[in-house]
Amino acid sequence: MLEPRGRVEVLTNHVTSEGDRFPGKTYAEVVLQPAYDQAKAELLEPMMAVNKAHLIMLHEQRLVSEGDAALIARALRDLDLAGLRSSTYTGQFEDLFFQVEHELMALAGEAAGNLHLGRSRNDMGIAIYRIVLRDKLLQTIDSSLFLLEKLLRFAADHTDTVMIGYTHTQHAQPTTLGHYIAGVADSLGRDIRRLMAAYGNCNRSSMGAAALTTSGFPISRERVAVLLAFDGLIENSYDAVSGADYVGEIAAGVQLAAIGLGRFVQELLLWCTQEFAVLRVAAPYVQVSSIMPQKRNPVSIEHMRSLLSSCVGTSQTVLTMMHNTPFGDIVDTEDDMQPYAWKSLSTLESVYRLLGHVIATLEINRELLRSRAENSFATVTELADTLVRTQGLSFRTAHGIVSRVVKKVSEQGGSAQSVSLKLLKETAVEVSGRELSLTEEELRQALNPAYFVEVRKLMGGPNPQEVLRALTGQEQRLSEQRAWLIEKRNGMIKGQEQVELILASWLV
C-alpha cells in the first residue's frame, strides 16, 4: 500500500500536468473546446442578433447615450466574424461569449461594457438557443411539407390501385394504395402539427430575465422580443432561465415523428423484396452488389431506417439529460445538451427530403397488387355483409357460414374466386338450416376486391372518391401550413431588417 506521502505526490504531479490555472488541460479538451467549436458554428450569428437588439432597446430606453450606442453599433459592425469562425480555442477566454465581449471592448472601448447592462449570460444564452432551435425547426417543418406534398400526390395517383391491407401481418381486407398512403400522410400531418406547436413554445424570449430575477434598470423586455421576432415573452423570469421543456417538447416531437416514419420505411423495405415485388425504387436510389450482378439494393431506404433510429436515440438523449435535473440555470440543459437537439432535427429534416424524392420516383406493380387481392380471401368480409343485406341473416350467422366455406376451399388449395354458389348454399343449410336465394352475380360481386373498396365510402374509408375528398382536406391543411411557414420566416427577416436599419441610421 502506498504511503500517504506517495499519494500526495501523485496528485500533485497530476495537477501540474493539467496546469495551475483555468482552464485545466483535460477540462478544456473535454468540455470547453467542443463547446467553443459548436458555438462558432451555431451560436455566433444569433449572439450578434441578441447584442444588436439589446443595444437598440438600451438606447431607446435612454440607458446608453447616443454616442455610446453609435460606438457599440460600429464595433458590432466591424467585428471580424470570419476570423472568429476560423479561430481555435486557446483558453485565453472561457468561451466564445467572453471572446466576443473582449473584442467589442477593444473596438469600442469602455462604452462596450454597457452592452451587458440589464442582462446576464443566463437569459442571453437561452435566447440564443431558442433562436437556433426555431430556425432548425422551421427547416425541418419545411422539409416535412415537401414530403407531405409528395405523399399526397402519390396517394391521389393510386386511389384505384387495389391492394390487400394487413392486420397482424396477415391478409385482412382489400383497400387501395392511395388509402394506405393517405393514412401515412395523416400521421405525418400530426407530426407536423406537433412540431409547429413546439415552435410556438420555443419562440419565446427570455431576454430581460437577466440571471433569474430581471433587472432594476427600466429595460423593455417586450421591445427586445419584437426585434428578435419572438412571438412573445417567457413571462416568469425564473422560468425564463430554468425551463427546459421547450427543447424537451421538440425532442419528444422529433422522436415520435422518427418512430412513426420508421414504421412506414420498414414497410417500404419489405415491399421492395422480390417476394413482395410491390414497388421498384428508382435507379438514383439503389446500389448494386460488388459480387452479385442481379442485385438492386434499396439502400437509400435502408439508410433512412437507420438514420431514423439514430434520430430516436439522439432525441432520447435530450430527454435523458433533462431528467432529474434541478429547476434552475444549469449546464445540463445548455451547451452539452443542445447539440443533440440540433442533430436530431437535422437528421429528421434530411430523411424527410430524401424520402420525398424516393416516393416521387417509385414504380408500383398495380397488376400484381390487384391479382393478389383477387386470389386471396381478403374479400370474404363483404360476402358475409352481403348475406346480411340480402338474406336477412345476423352478421354472426353469416360470419359462421362464410368461415366454414373459407375453410373448405382452403383445404382444397383454392381462393375466394374458387367459392361456388352451390358450396355456399350447402354450407348455409349446414350452419343455419336456411336456404339462400343469393344469385351468382351477387356472389361474384361480393368477392370482387374493387367492389369491396367501392362500397366502403364512409368517412375515412378506401372508396376512391372518399379518399380524394380526404386528400383535398389534407391539401388545404398543407397550404395553410406553408402559409404559416412563410409568415414565420418573413417575420424573422423583417425583424432583422429593422434592426439593421436602426443601427445603420446611427452610423450615418
UniProtKB/TrEMBL annotation:
Q: Which Pfam families match?
A: ASL_C2, Lyase_1
Q: Which UniProt keywords apply?
A: Amino-acid biosynthesis, Arginine biosynthesis, Cytoplasm, Lyase
Q: Give the CC-aspect GO terms.
A: cytosol
Q: Does the keyword Lyase apply?
A: yes
The listed locations are: Cytoplasm
Q: Which GO molecular function annotation, any one, does this entry have? A: argininosuccinate lyase activity
Its EC top class is lyase
**Ranges where the Fumarate lyase N-terminal domain occurs:** 103-312
Query: What biological process terms from GO does the record include?
Result: L-arginine biosynthetic process via ornithine
Q: Does the keyword Iron-sulfur apply?
A: no
Stated EC number for the protein is: 4.3.2.1
Question: Where is each Argininosuccinate lyase C-terminal domain found?
Answer: 377-454
Q: Which InterPro entries does the annotation name? A: Arg_succ_lyase_C (IPR029419), Argininosuccinate_lyase (IPR009049), Fumarase/histidase_N (IPR024083), Fumarate_lyase_fam (IPR000362), Fumarate_lyase_N (IPR022761), L-Aspartase-like (IPR008948)
Q: Which SUPFAM superfamilies match?
A: L-aspartase-like
Quick one: where is this thing mainly located?
cytoplasm
Q: Which reaction does it catalyse?
A: 2-(N(omega)-L-arginino)succinate = fumarate + L-arginine
Q: In which pathway does it act?
A: Amino-acid biosynthesis; L-arginine biosynthesis; L-arginine from L-ornithine and carbamoyl phosphate: step 3/3
User: Matching PANTHER family, A to Z?
Assistant: ARGININOSUCCINATE LYASE
The UniProt similarity line reads: Belongs to the lyase 1 family. Argininosuccinate lyase subfamily.
Query: Mind telling me what this protein is named?
Result: Argininosuccinate lyase
Q: Name the gene that codes for it.
A: argH
